[in-house]
Amino acid sequence: MSPGPGRRLIPAYLVTGGRTRPTGPALDRLAVLVRTDTALPPDLGSEQQRLCELLEPGALTVVECAAHLELPVSATVFLATDLAASGHLHTRPPIPSAGGTDRSLVERLLVGLRSLH
């Protein structure tokens, strides 16, 4: 039976090499990945090569990379942690969401600005 159009010839779980946990600390799906200037080894897997090529122009999150590579996020985490451990990627935690603004602080600021007139 041949795969349908758009279906991968190699199952995505093979990207992990049969491992159940990444080699380094697991990355958040919104962690930012940045390619380093380190030369890629010739024996790099095709999926890792594709991830590095995807990051050449700039930074992307893990989930964005997964979408571009058409891989599950969990498999992309494995690729990224392996590449980070070998020095080919830098990872950064996601930017935290902004906290709420203290309304009383804003009101005091407005009173102070009005008193300057």
TrEMBL record:
It comes from the Bacteria. InterPro entries: DUF742. This is DUF742 domain-containing protein.
